[in-house]
Amino acid sequence: MLPSSRPQKCCCRLESPQRNVEVAATMLRPALACCKLYISEARNAPALRAIERAAAALRPAAVLVNAFADDAYNRVGYTLVSPLAAGGGDPAAPPPLHRAAFGMVAAALEAVDLGAHAGAHPRLGVVDHIAFHPLAGAHLDDVAALTRAVAADIGDKLQVPTYLYGAAHREGRTLATIRRQLGYFTPTSPGEQWRGAPDASSLPVPPDAGPTTPSRSKGVVAIGATAWVDNYNVPVHTADVAAAKRIARAVSERGGGLRSVQAMGLAHGEGVAEVACNLLDPATVGAEQVQEKVRQLAAEQGLAVGEGYFTDFSQEKIVELYMQSAEVEASQQ
Q1: Of these residues, 117, 121, 129, 268, which one is catalytic?
Q2: Residue ranges of region Disordered (predicted)?
Q3: Active-site annotation holds for 139
């Protein structure tokens, strides 16, 4: 069974010790990178098993260290870790992280139909978002090159319009920018839901790879390379999504709030909304500050909040999980 970063486990990261950082750095040999894939499906167990089998095919070279499924959003986030170097075998073959990510995308496109999807989280496609991050010993430029290669394969071989962002894009376009251009943040169904496939007749911005017209069953993919980003969500005890949106706007840098924080207000089950945040510089503005800011803003509207949670492990924990897996594999050889 995969490690799970369910809320009750992730929240302990707020006071995590630094010892694991030192241990992992000491043990680490190769430069590592991680790939986070966000799939627009969390309720179809056979589809998720097919996607996870595709990742397992590259083990131990690439290791799936986390899966975080959210039923209300109908969305799952996967975290892959692998050395950047190709390692053994065919030196001309793409690195394991490239092959594992591509395999998971191909499996998702085969198993999931965007036209049948519904959930409370925005999405652009079956594979909504792919983020590559350098871990210990890796450089962003190297990860960006890997990202561009994966994007080209997804666009050309799988025939999905693919948009680059971050260091992988020639002008450093942000993920938020391309999402706004493609209408990501506008619900397509009553009740603050996203349902069915978006309009496939045209794209307002030409993709960086793949066809210029998306398939209704696949949608499009945004894929980029950046420094580490934390995803931290804070429940707000209200059915009023508009109130959560006001809080999200005020907490975000774009709305005059916390620097390097992006936020959305979303429905998240019966009688609960959520402020879903991207922390673009978590070493400077972390979860504690976000939690307190959301609490203050909610209190001004007479609302209470719950304890926030991360949707993935920390960088240090991800490296630790990978190293543990590598040690187990080595001991079995």
Answers
A1: 121
A2: 186-217
A3: no
